[in-house]
Amino acid sequence: MTKYNIQLFSVRKSFEKDIEGTLKALAEMGYDGVEFCDSVFEKIEAKELKRILDFYGLSPVSTHIGYEKLLDNIDFYIDYLKEIGCTAVFCPWANIDDKQKADKVAEDFEKFSEKLIMNGISFGYHNHREEFKHEIENQTAFDYLVDKSGMLLLTELDLGHIAAVGKDTEEYIRKYAGKVTYLHLKQYEKADDNFKPSLLNSGIVDIKKCVQVGLLMGCEHFIVEYDHPVNSELEDAKENIEFLKGLKL
Q1: If you average pLDDT over residues 18-27, what whole number do you get?
Q2: Which fold has domain 4-246?
Q3: N or C: less crowded end of the chain, CB within 10 Å?
Q4: What distance, in Å, lies between the first and last C-alpha atoms of the chain?
Q5: Can you give the residue ranges of every domain in the chain?
Q6: How many CB atoms lie within 10 A of CB 45?
């Protein structure tokens, strides 16, 4: 069976109140692992976090770490991630709306990749919509950044953001086969001329087809992200994992 994980930003309020209780609840729902936000590492010692993860059988599959934080303090994160056994870092955002900015970010990304990989940690970039709204040298800013950042960079494709700008999610999974071993499962509904977040079981993204294509293209980690709960954070997390388990992939 395919393994499913959750980005802890999806349950951030619950996690803030009760770290161990939230992780226990996610494990009991059937999640196989978690993806962290960088703020987690300021709230709990690495040894204690590892103890909790091991006790509840949750894998520390990856983390988001901000661009500026990587520039300022990458060694701290490397030490922490090695302690808990987390082997992938994704930068969740960078301003790349023109060539000069994108070139500087790409240069830094190459440095991050090399240093992290030397410590057994992969590095990649997680997209939002904005990277697809700007063009650099006749391609999207996202594609330009990936091309310029070197062969070591992974892509953590966020399906909801890709679909919300009118791009073909399945095509992008195929395009970055080999680089997209981590895939963000996010869903939106069309609301008038805009989009609003929704649970995975309905919306503009064909989640089942994307997981199927992802598996064919070598994706190993499927990560649920839901920014704005309909009910409560944990209720929605449970509904999302039940939907995914029901796909029987």
Answers
A1: 98
A2: TIM Barrel (3.20.20)
A3: N
A4: 6
A5: 4-246
A6: 11
